[in-house]
Amino acid sequence: MSDYGIPPGPPRQDAPAAPLPVRVAEAMRHRQEVITADVVAIFPSHGPQRLDTDYCLRLGALAVVALAEAVEHDALDYRSRAVGDLATVVAERALSPEQLFAFVHIAERTTIDELSLDPGFGATTEPWPLVSQRIREASLRLLAAWTTRAVHTPSAGALTDALTTLHTRAVFEAAVGKECHRAERFAHPFAVFVIDVDALGEVNLAHGYGVGDRVLERLGILLRTFFRQHDWVARYEEDAFAVLLPETTAADAATLAERARSTIEERLAFRDYRTEQRVVVTVSVAVVTVAGIEGVPVDPARVLAIAEDTSRTAKARGRSIVVHRPLA
User: Fold this and answer.
1) What is the SS3 assignment for 326?
2) According to the model, what pLDDT value does residue 4 have?
3) Dihedral angle, C-alpha 62, 65, 67, 69, nearest 10 °
4) What is the rounded CA–CA span in Å between residue 40 and residue 35?
5) Which 3 state secondary structure label does DSSP give 30?
6) What pLDDT score does 10 carry?
């Protein structure tokens, strides 16, 4: 009995340790700055193009993040944010595949050297061979994901997305600019939708990475037929689409967005042939509406920024949801 006459509870049990790959990935993220600094100290001497330190630090930080994701999940989707962010920085300096491959190889070796000192799974422990092998495989997965993305993702100047055959983001942004001019000159209302596929990464992990591409391809076809011929439908990001609807009021846009959301959920479901499980695919829809007032300028960059922010709000509130934000 305790001093208060209360029988003692059961012995305290410590929480189970996280799986090894999770602990290794967490250690990589924790040591990101150290690993990146070591990589940058070596890399600028490679190849004919000498890169400045700030650029290499950004490149290194993103490479470590992507490597950690690949270590944790034993997979890396080319559509993931980690690969996308890395690809964006690579494109800034038109880094050659040879340079990127050299950089990732140095990052792999530096990560192994840094984590070999970890007392929990370092070079003197039993798990170390598995840990070092997982990091080597992660670098191969990263390079494969980047290469696949380069093949599947069109250049900024392309007019048509290769997978969905919809307009590219560059074309869509140009169309929004013209519509903003019309709204200012003629007081025409319009709306912009951002339609984001919910948890596409989870679908890929559960049912195979090729499934994600098929979902995006089918969604592109569905959106093209759902909206009017003079609406602009584009692939906006990896798993997000955007629609520009000229001559559309706020009330009509809200109704149409809800119809689009429910139609997609109804028609985009598929059956996993391995398990016969029916898989429902949902989307979150951000709606930005512009009333259009003659003589009042409308900034296209602001319209798109608000649309993206509203899309993030919709994702944060849960799946299969419509969030409407009139432009003030």
Assistant:
1) strand
2) 39
3) -140
4) 9
5) helix
6) 54
Cα 66 from Cα 139, distance rounded (Å):
9
| Residue 157 pLDDT | 53
CB-CB neighbours of 280 under 10 Å: 12
Contact between residue 246 and residue 179 where contact means Cβ atoms under 8 Å apart = yes
231/263 Cα distance (integer angstroms): 18
Give 10-residue mean pLDDT values along the chain (328 residues). Answer: 47 69 96 94 67 90 96 91 90 83 91 95 94 93 85 64 86 89 90 93 74 89 92 91 96 97 90 75 95 91 95 90 91
Listed in sequence order, the DSSP H helices in the chain are 20-30, 32-42, 53-73, 81-92, 97-115, 128-152, 169-186, 200-207, 209-226, 250-267, 300-317
DSSP H or E stretch at residue 197: strand 190-197
Closest CA to 71 of 136, 134, 3, 4: 134
Q: What is the pLDDT of residue 309?
A: 95
CB 183 within 8 A of CB 292: yes
Q: Are 247 and 187 in contact (CB under 8 A)?
A: no
Q: What is residue 12's predicted lDDT score, i.e. its pLDDT? A: 52
With vertex at residue 51, the alpha carbon angle to CA 136 and CA 55, rounded to the nearest 5 degrees, is 75
63: closest CA among 24, 25, 108? Answer: 108
Decide: helix, strand or coil at residue 156. coil
Domains of the chain: 20-152 (1.10.490.20), 169-326 (3.30.70.270)
Distance spanning both ends of the chain, measured CA to CA = 67
Collapsing DSSP to helix, strand or coil, 25 comes out as: helix
- Radius of gyration of the chain measured on its C-alpha atoms: 24
